[in-house]
Design goal:
Shape: elongated
Number of strands: 0
Order of helices and strands: HHHH
Number of helices: 4
Largest sheet: none
Oligomer: single chain
Strand content: under 5%
Structural class: mainly alpha
Length: 134
């Protein structure tokens, strides 16, 4: 990209900081997808998870059972998960292309952003999964 050329150290630092944050965001989207998947299992698969919605509608032999709200719930989460997967894949490919410019400082920023993202997002998940570790 012609407009992205850096001509001094400040511009290079700004570019490196930008790609560091994008690499951090990459791990954030992974963590968000995992959080939403756990929430979807609790909300959509829990018996009576939509009991209030089913109670509002009068029960009749022709009306759908509680399965319909669960199906709608699963479709909603599937759409959100698909959009987050699209975002995550796009970020991955863009980071790969920036890394392939062979600019050492941008590559280092991406690697450090990835490591920091792992520490921030994945480490919190492991601590919450193992309360005996605290």
């Amino acid at each position: 990209i012609e407009q992205w050329k850096t001509s001094n150290a400040a511009q290079l630092f700004g570019s490196a900081l930008f790609w560091f944050l994008i690499a951090l965001l990459h791990h954030g989207t992974k963590r968000l997808r995992g959080h939403l998947a756990r929430r979807q299992r609790v909300v959509c698969n829990e018996p009576g998870g939509f009991s209030k919605l089913a109670e509002q509608e009068p029960a009749s032999s022709s009306s759908p059972t509680v399965e319909a709200p669960n199906t709608c719930c699963k479709i909603k989460y599937l759409i959100v998960q698909s959009l987050l997967q699209l975002l995550q894949t796009t970020i991955s490919f863009i980071l790969m292309l920036v890394f392939m410019t062979y600019n050492v400082w941008l590559a280092l920023a991406i690697v450090l952003g990835d490591v920091c993202g792992y520490i921030i997002f994945s480490h919190q998940q492991q601590l919450m999964a193992d309360p005996g570790c605290m």
